[in-house]
Amino acid sequence: MSTIRRLVLDVLKAHEPSIITYADQLAGLERVSAVNIVVMEVDRIVENIKVTIQGEKLDYTTIEKEIKDLGGSIHSIDLVIAGKHIIEETPTHQD
């Protein structure tokens, strides 16, 4: 069984549907407790967004399908947190 608790995804999407719709649809998925979306770049036709999803035992396949159903595509998985708890990152001298 999945132990994924947080995913950060780089997603390419059309201007419509809006990030409000994306957030609402993703937040409605089973086991998702929070969704955060930030627009990183806007083009004439598309937007590049960073999607952070948090929950318990997240199902990547279901999340990926929902993003595809909304017309988006996942460019990369930028962060995965799995296990019994979330390790919060602390700044280092390199940050």
Task: Describe the model.
The chain has 95 residues and is α+β, with helices and mostly antiparallel strands. Strands 2-3-1-4 form a 4-stranded antiparallel β-sheet, covered by helices on one side. It starts with a strand and ends in a 13-residue tail after the last strand. The mean pLDDT is 93.
Which strand order does the major sheet show? Answer: 2-3-1-4
Number of strands: 4
Radius of gyration: 14 Å
The CA-CA distance between the termini, in Å, is 34 Å
Order of helices and strands: EHEEHE
CATH level 4 superfamily: MTH889-like domain
Q: What is the residue-mean pLDDT, rounded to a whole number?
A: 93
Instruction: Tally the structural domains.
Output: 1
Q: Which structural class do you get from the secondary structure elements?
A: alpha+beta
Based on Cα principal axes, name the global outline. globular
Number of helices, counting only DSSP H or I runs of 4 residues or more: 2
Strand content: 35-45%
| Proportion of helical residues | 10-25%
Largest sheet: 4 strands, antiparallel
CATH architect. name: 2-Layer Sandwich
Query: Under CATH, the topology is which?
Result: Alpha-Beta Plaits
What's the CATH C level? Alpha Beta
Low-confidence stretches: none
Describe the protein's topology.
Blueprint: E1 4-14, H1 19-27, E2 32-42, E3 46-55, H2 60-69, E4 73-82
Can you describe this structure in just a few lines?
20% of the residues lie in helices and 44% in strands.
